[in-house]
Amino acid sequence: MSETTTMLDVSGLGHRYGGAHGHVAIDDLTFQVRTGELACIVGPSGCGKSTLLRAISGLISASTGEVRLHGDPVRGVPSDLAVVFQDYSRSLFPWLSVRSNVEFPLRSRGLSKAERRARADEVLEWVGLSAAARKYPWQLSGGMQQRVSIARALACRPALLLMDEPFASVDAQTRFELEDLLLRVRKQFDSTVLLVTHDIDESIYLADRVLVLSKSPASIVADLEVDLGEDRDQITTRESDTFIHLRSEVARLLEVRTGTPAAVES
Ligand SMILES: Nc1ncnc2c1ncn2[C@@H]1O[C@H](COP(=O)(O)OP(=O)(O)OP(=O)(O)O)[C@@H](O)[C@H]1O
Predict the structure, then answer these.
(1) Name one GO molecular function term (predicted).
(2) Which atom of ligand 1 is nearest to the CA of 51?
(3) CB of 58 within 8 A of CB of 75?
(4) Fewest CB within 10 A of the end CB: N or C in the chain?
(5) CA distances (Å), origin 63, targets 14, 20, 132
(6) Alpha carbons 26 and 231: distance in angstroms, whole number
(7) Residues within 6 Å of ligand 1 by CB
(8) Runs of H (alpha helix) within 127-229
(9) Coil/strand/helix, residue 96
(10) What letter does residue 119 receive in the DSSP assignment?
(11) 264 pLDDT higher than 70
């Protein structure tokens, strides 16, 4: 992992929906994500988190500012970027097997059939779904379907993995399992990840760095290093003084900026 390379460079990014007199969703956002880093963005509901991810992934063209991925300006969806959405049931193809879902985005990347199969089997093993490769998404639990989405994103070996509330639709126990899975696979694949969540605890548990957003139009109110080390555990890490201190700090920042008490989930 390189400590000094910038993978994502967001500079003065702003977006207004609906023309000159429309709604300003994000305002003058500037931050970087280093290569190999897992950065979390936490902010109140409706503050503009999804708008930010849409602009970074090239799905919308921001009104102001610029996004650069490994130095190249993002215009349109970059081929070496993958996104995992909250709603796994709408992002997987129900008529394709788990393995075919994972292989699907590789079809347009010039890989042979054997290479696609090898890639899919490797990432399915990593998310613990080798035995489910021939099943269909609708035969799996919600948590398993989201594992398929993560596997599909990783199979593309993206330079940057964007995740938009990826664990918000599963139960609490599955959420913990998926968080630990993400920590394992990002280590295995040396991934650079930008994950958006409204869950303060989740952001601290997962991240090397937490960016706190204000209410809409979103701006960055804090950029906090998370000094919890590489090896994290759902019980002891969450009990540590560093975790508890950071959780209070983020909650306070959100409360001050939104005027409403932040939901601190435990
Ligand atoms: N296509 C659109 N057209 C007009 N306004 C939009 C559009 N998409 C989002 N908005 C508005 O922009 C603001 C930010 O929305 P966005 O979905 O980015 O926030 P969010 O932080 O992701 O929300 P949530 O936490 O509820 O998912 C909101 O006020 C929303 O109503």
Answers:
(1) ATP binding
(2) 18
(3) yes
(4) C
(5) 6, 10, 43
(6) 34
(7) 17-18, 23, 25, 43, 45-51, 198, 216
(8) 142-155, 172-189, 200-206
(9) coil
(10) H
(11) no
- Ligand 1 centre from 217 Cα, in Å? 10
Q: What is the pLDDT of residue 104?
A: 93
CA atoms within 13 A on the CB side of 60: 18
Distance 90 CA to ligand 1 centre (A): 19
Tokens 């393995």: give the residue: 99
SS3 assignment, position 183: helix
219 CA from centroid of ligand 1 (Å): 14
Q: Cα–Cα distance between 191 and 34 in angstroms, integer? A: 11
Residues 101-149 have pLDDT tens digits of 999 999 888 889 999 999 999 999 989 999 999 999 999 999 999 999 9
Helix, strand, or coil here: 198? coil
The amino acid occupying position 200 is I
In whole angstroms, what is the distance from residue 250 CA to residue 210 CA? 9
| Strand order across the 6-17 sheet | 23-34, 6-17, 64-69, 72-73
* Residue 48 CA, ligand 1 centroid: distance in Å: 5
Q: How far apart (Å, rounded) are the C-alpha atoms in residues 139 and 142?
A: 10
pLDDT (tens digit per residue) in 198-254: 899 999 999 999 999 988 788 899 999 999 999 999 999 999 999 999 999 999 998
Atom of ligand 1 nearest to the CA of 165: 27
Computed from CA positions of residues 204, 206, 211, 213, in that sequence, does the dihedral angle turn out positive or negative?
negative
Is the Cα dihedral 143, 147, 149, 150 positive or negative? positive
Query: Angle formed by the axes of helices 172-189 and 113-126, to 10°?
Result: 130
Give the per-residue pLDDT at 155: 92
